[in-house]
Amino acid sequence: MRREGMIARKEGDAQPPGKRNLVDYVAQQLRQDILDGASPAGKRLPSEGGLTERYKVSRTVIREAIASLRADGLVEVRHGVGVFVSAVQPFPLAELMATDPARISSIIEMLELRTAVETEAAGIAAIRRSPAQEEAILERCKDIDRALRAGAATSDADFAFHLAIADATNNPRFKEFLELSGRKMIPRSFLLDHRDEDADADYIMQIQVEHRQIAEAISDRDEDVARAAMRRHLMGSQQRYRSLVRGT
C-alpha cells in the first residue's frame, strides 16, 4: 500500500519531513528538471500515473504540483493530450542568483542578498521550529564540529546547517531560495581548496562559534537574538571578502 511521505528521491536529495510538503517537493523537482534543461521546451511530461509512480504520491499531489508549475508559466496543459513544457519560459531565478567565483564583488552581492533573507529566516525559525526541526539544526551544527575534528572541508556541512534553519521556518520558499543558490551560498567553497581550509582553521572556528550562537537562539525561541546572530554571522563574511577586494 502506498504511503504519503514515502517518495522517490534523486541521489543527494533530502526527503521532505511530512505530507504538507509533498506538493512543494514534487513541484520543485519538476521545476528543477525544466530549468536545468533535463525537460526541454516542448517535451511532454510523464503521464499523471507515471508521475504518481515515480514519486510514490497520490494523484492529488501530482495535480497540485502541475498546477503550481502552470501558474509559474513553466508548463501548459493540452486537454486530452498531456502536459508539456512551455516553449516560452520565465527568466530562471537560478540564473539571476548565479555567482561568478572570479569576481569577489559577485560573492559579496550574494552575501548581501543572503543577509536580507536569512536574517529574517532565523527569526521566523525561532518562533515556528518544531522539536524535530530544532534537533535537526543542532545536529547539523554538530556535523560541522565533526568535520573540523576530522580535518575535513566544512562547506557541505555548513550548507546543510543553513538549509535546516530555512526548513524550520515552515515556509518552503526560504528553503527553495537556498537550494537554488546551492553550494555557491558558501563562498569559501569557491575560494578555498581543502588544504586552504585547514590553513584557515582559525577563521572557520570563528564561523562555527557564530553557528552555535544562531542554533542556541533558535533553540531558545529567541527571535531577536536569532536574527542578530545570523546578521552578525553573514555581515562578518561580507567583511572578510571585502578585505580580499582591498588586498588586506
Automatic annotation (TrEMBL):
<feature type="domain" description="HTH gntR-type">
    <location>
        <begin position="20"/>
        <end position="88"/>
    </location>
</feature>
<dbReference type="GO" id="GO:0003677">
    <property type="term" value="F:DNA binding"/>
</dbReference>
<protein>
    <submittedName>
        <fullName>DNA-binding FadR family transcriptional regulator</fullName>
    </submittedName>
</protein>
<dbReference type="InterPro" id="IPR008920">
    <property type="entry name" value="TF_FadR/GntR_C"/>
</dbReference>
<dbReference type="GO" id="GO:0003700">
    <property type="term" value="F:DNA-binding transcription factor activity"/>
</dbReference>
<dbReference type="InterPro" id="IPR036390">
    <property type="entry name" value="WH_DNA-bd_sf"/>
</dbReference>
<keyword id="KW-0804">Transcription</keyword>
<dbReference type="Pfam" id="PF00392">
    <property type="entry name" value="GntR"/>
</dbReference>
<dbReference type="Pfam" id="PF07729">
    <property type="entry name" value="FCD"/>
</dbReference>
<keyword id="KW-0238">DNA-binding</keyword>
<dbReference type="InterPro" id="IPR036388">
    <property type="entry name" value="WH-like_DNA-bd_sf"/>
</dbReference>
<keyword id="KW-0805">Transcription regulation</keyword>
<dbReference type="InterPro" id="IPR011711">
    <property type="entry name" value="GntR_C"/>
</dbReference>
<dbReference type="InterPro" id="IPR000524">
    <property type="entry name" value="Tscrpt_reg_HTH_GntR"/>
</dbReference>
